[in-house]
Design goal:
With 391 residues, the protein is α+β, with helices and mostly antiparallel strands. Helix content is 42%, strand content 21%. Strand 4 and strand 5 form a beta hairpin. Helix 2 packs across helix 3 and helix 3 crosses helix 4. The protein is globular and about 60 Å long. The site of alpha-D-galactopyranose has 11 residues, from helix 5.
């Protein structure tokens, strides 16, 4: 039995009724890291790993949430909603809170969820929960929200109930994913278009360091503030500037460097990352994966030296793969301080290279490297009965 069947069955056993079942995917990001909350572009894609959520309405105000992966239950009331003392319920409660603030009519509900997205590995398992919740409740209570509105509810839940001041990339990728396509999202205009990722001979392989980045939120929020400080310093002299995408290296050298070297480094990384992303989009037009890969390596060095969000394990993986023929590009992915590296690898060498990297990782860190071969899938959707395996 697959995971989605398990979640549906668990719900039926617990609540003796048929749930509405939705699934929301995790994401990868080819390039454009820490650019989203800086109003720059990003280039993510939804992957074929999902959070499954079974929901049903109640006639009272009770909220029952069961996290199948933790075998843990949490209950709350719609009447006096507040953040939970433990983390995981807040991804669900945060969404309910946003709907309540917006005056949406909800009743109590039963929720069972679980999935196959590795947790805290930089693959947006958190966004997959908030997006699944917002999408499922939109359907269940017929709220009529657009996908963009749902993405923003999910993002706001993370800001207000989890305390991570994330950008919109993860939620957007989870909701707008399209099989075989990358999403180029402009985080200033919130416009997007799809870029086909058609190369049949290239695989996206993730190497999971196993380092959980649970403590990342304070460092993440700090990076965000540093970038905002950099923009404010430039705005004093160049009031037309709205965000880092409008700022040049010259301006940084003139107005930011003399004030704070750290703020300068953070902003410089973001400006360079935006440039790299545009170059990657051009290279993708001609399937020039060699250039795409080079830019990814450079992103890694920027994240390591300027943005300072990498870790020894990620650095080791990138340095190791850089020496291996058949790896076109590699870098740490997501917020940082652990999680996965994303690698573009020639298809026919992917297995062999993964084994080699696993061995090297084991001898260096005395622990197992997990490897995920991913493909690009669709965004959040209702799981229809015909999508379920017969049990
Ligand atoms: C996390 C956040 C995203 C984005 C990335 C870094 O995944 O949720 O909004 O900022 O980190 O690119």
């Amino acid at each position: 039995m697959g995971k989605q069947e398990k979640i549906a069955e668990l719900y039926q056993q617990m609540y003796k009724s048929q749930p509405l079942l939705v699934r929301s995917p995790g994401r990868v990001n080819i390039i454009g890291e820490h650019t989203d909350y800086n109003l720059g572009p990003v280039l993510p894609a939804a992957i074929n790993k999902y959070m499954y959520m079974a929901v049903g309405a109640r006639t009272d105000n009770e909220i029952n949430i069961y996290a199948a992966d933790y075998s843990d239950q949490f209950s709350a009331s719609l009447i006096k909603l507040e953040p939970a003392w433990k983390l995981w319920p807040n991804y669900v409660l945060g969404v309910i809170n946003e709907f309540q603030k917006a005056g949406k009519n909800l009743t109590g509900m039963n929720i069972v969820f679980g999935g196959d997205i590795p947790l805290a590995a930089g693959l947006s398992s958190s966004a997959s929960i908030t997006c699944a919740t917002a999408y499922a409740l939109d359907k269940l209570f017929d709220l009529g929200l657009s996908r963009l509105e749902i993405a923003k509810v999910a993002q706001a839940a993370e800001h207000n109930y989890v305390g991570v001041h994330c950008g919109l990339m993860d939620q957007f990728a989870s909701l707008f994913g399209k099989e075989g396509n990358l999403i180029k999202l402009n985080c200033t205009t919130e416009e997007h278009h799809y870029i086909p990722f058609t190369a049949k001979d290239i695989k996206i392989v993730l190497f999971d360091t196993g380092i959980k980045h649970h403590l990342v939120s304070s460092a993440y929020n700090e990076r965000r503030e540093q970038c905002q400080n950099g923009v404010a310093l430039v705005q004093k002299h160049e009031p037309q500037v709205k965000g880092l995408p409008d700022i040049t290296e010259d301006m940084l050298n003139k107005y930011v460097k003399p004030v704070s070297d750290i703020v300068f480094k953070r902003c410089l990384y973001v400006i360079q990352e935006i440039e790299r992303l545009e170059k990657v989009c051009t290279a993708l037009e001609t399937d020039d994966f060699k250039s795409v890969g080079e830019h990814m390596f450079n992103t890694h060095y920027g994240l390591k030296d300027l943005y300072e969000v990498s870790c020894d394990e990620c650095d080791f993986l990138v340095d190791t793969t850089r020496q291996i023929e058949g790896v076109l590009g590699s870098r740490m992915m997501g917020a940082g301080f652990g999680g996965c590296t994303i690698n573009l690898i020639h298809n026919e060498l992917a297995e062999e290279i993964s084994e080699k990297v696993k061995n090297e990782y084991r001898s260096r860190f005395k622990k197992e490297l997990k490897v995920y071969h991913t493909s690009i899938g669709n965004g959040t959707e209702v799981v229809k009965p015909e999508m379920l395996e017969a049990v």
